[in-house]
Amino acid sequence: MTTKIAIPTADGILCSHFGHCEAFYMATIVDGKVTEESLVVPPAHEPGLYPAWVAEHGVKTVIAGGMGQKARDLFAKVNVEVFVGAPLQAPQVLTEAYINQTLVTGNNHCDH
Question: What is the rounded distance in angstroms from the CA atom of residue 80 to the CA atom of residue 88?
Protein backbone atom coordinates (compact mmCIF):
# COMPACT_ATOMS: atom_id res chain seq x y z
CA MET A 1 0.00 0.00 0.00
CA THR A 2 1.22 3.51 -0.85
CA THR A 3 0.29 6.73 0.90
CA LYS A 4 1.72 10.20 1.34
CA ILE A 5 1.72 12.25 4.53
CA ALA A 6 2.47 15.90 5.31
CA ILE A 7 3.63 17.46 8.55
CA PRO A 8 3.88 21.26 9.01
CA THR A 9 7.29 22.18 10.43
CA ALA A 10 9.17 25.12 11.91
CA ASP A 11 12.76 24.96 13.12
CA GLY A 12 12.95 21.26 12.21
CA ILE A 13 10.03 20.07 14.36
CA LEU A 14 6.26 19.95 14.13
CA CYS A 15 4.86 23.48 14.00
CA SER A 16 2.22 23.90 16.70
CA HIS A 17 -0.02 25.93 14.36
CA PHE A 18 -0.66 24.42 10.95
CA GLY A 19 -1.05 27.70 9.04
CA HIS A 20 2.14 29.25 10.41
CA CYS A 21 4.64 26.62 9.31
CA GLU A 22 7.89 27.31 7.45
CA ALA A 23 7.75 24.14 5.35
CA PHE A 24 5.87 20.88 5.02
CA TYR A 25 7.73 17.64 5.52
CA MET A 26 6.20 15.25 2.99
CA ALA A 27 6.85 11.53 2.98
CA THR A 28 5.77 8.78 0.64
CA ILE A 29 5.20 5.50 2.47
CA VAL A 30 5.15 2.21 0.59
CA ASP A 31 4.32 -0.97 2.49
CA GLY A 32 5.25 0.61 5.83
CA LYS A 33 8.57 2.11 4.69
CA VAL A 34 9.42 5.72 3.85
CA THR A 35 10.56 5.67 0.22
CA GLU A 36 10.74 9.40 -0.42
CA GLU A 37 10.85 12.49 1.77
CA SER A 38 11.12 16.20 1.11
CA LEU A 39 10.64 19.63 2.65
CA VAL A 40 8.28 21.76 0.59
CA VAL A 41 7.90 25.49 1.20
CA PRO A 42 4.22 26.46 0.95
CA PRO A 43 2.84 29.51 -0.80
CA ALA A 44 2.09 32.59 1.31
CA HIS A 45 -0.53 31.75 3.91
CA GLU A 46 -4.09 32.68 3.10
CA PRO A 47 -7.01 31.23 5.05
CA GLY A 48 -8.33 28.12 3.30
CA LEU A 49 -5.43 27.81 0.81
CA TYR A 50 -3.29 25.06 2.36
CA PRO A 51 -5.77 22.14 2.32
CA ALA A 52 -6.17 22.21 -1.48
CA TRP A 53 -2.44 22.89 -1.96
CA VAL A 54 -1.47 19.94 0.24
CA ALA A 55 -3.98 17.67 -1.54
CA GLU A 56 -2.52 18.72 -4.92
CA HIS A 57 0.78 17.20 -3.73
CA GLY A 58 -0.93 13.80 -3.40
CA VAL A 59 -1.09 13.89 0.40
CA LYS A 60 -3.66 11.60 2.03
CA THR A 61 -2.84 12.27 5.71
CA VAL A 62 -1.77 15.37 7.65
CA ILE A 63 -0.28 15.23 11.14
CA ALA A 64 -0.58 18.58 12.91
CA GLY A 65 -0.24 20.16 16.32
CA GLY A 66 -3.10 22.58 15.93
CA MET A 67 -5.56 23.38 13.19
CA GLY A 68 -8.71 25.47 12.98
CA GLN A 69 -12.08 23.95 12.19
CA LYS A 70 -12.26 25.59 8.76
CA ALA A 71 -9.03 23.88 7.66
CA ARG A 72 -10.23 20.53 9.02
CA ASP A 73 -13.49 20.91 7.11
CA LEU A 74 -11.61 21.78 3.91
CA PHE A 75 -9.34 18.75 4.31
CA ALA A 76 -12.40 16.54 4.71
CA LYS A 77 -13.76 17.89 1.42
CA VAL A 78 -10.58 16.81 -0.40
CA ASN A 79 -10.47 13.41 1.38
CA VAL A 80 -7.36 14.10 3.46
CA GLU A 81 -7.28 12.51 6.91
CA VAL A 82 -6.12 14.85 9.69
CA PHE A 83 -4.57 14.09 13.07
CA VAL A 84 -4.36 17.09 15.42
CA GLY A 85 -2.72 17.41 18.81
CA ALA A 86 0.51 15.65 17.82
CA PRO A 87 3.57 16.34 19.99
CA LEU A 88 6.24 18.84 18.95
CA GLN A 89 8.75 16.33 17.61
CA ALA A 90 10.84 15.85 14.49
CA PRO A 91 8.70 14.88 11.51
CA GLN A 92 10.63 11.65 11.01
CA VAL A 93 9.74 10.58 14.57
CA LEU A 94 6.07 11.38 13.96
CA THR A 95 6.15 9.53 10.63
CA GLU A 96 7.54 6.40 12.26
CA ALA A 97 4.88 6.59 14.97
CA TYR A 98 2.22 6.93 12.26
CA ILE A 99 3.60 3.91 10.38
CA ASN A 100 3.79 1.85 13.58
CA GLN A 101 0.29 2.98 14.63
CA THR A 102 1.70 4.43 17.87
CA LEU A 103 1.08 8.10 17.09
CA VAL A 104 -0.33 9.74 20.20
CA THR A 105 -2.41 12.88 19.80
CA GLY A 106 -3.83 15.14 22.44
CA ASN A 107 -5.52 18.50 22.54
CA ASN A 108 -5.71 20.62 19.43
CA HIS A 109 -3.12 23.40 19.84
CA CYS A 110 -5.37 25.81 17.93
CA ASP A 111 -8.42 27.59 19.29
CA HIS A 112 -10.02 28.93 16.09
Answer: 21
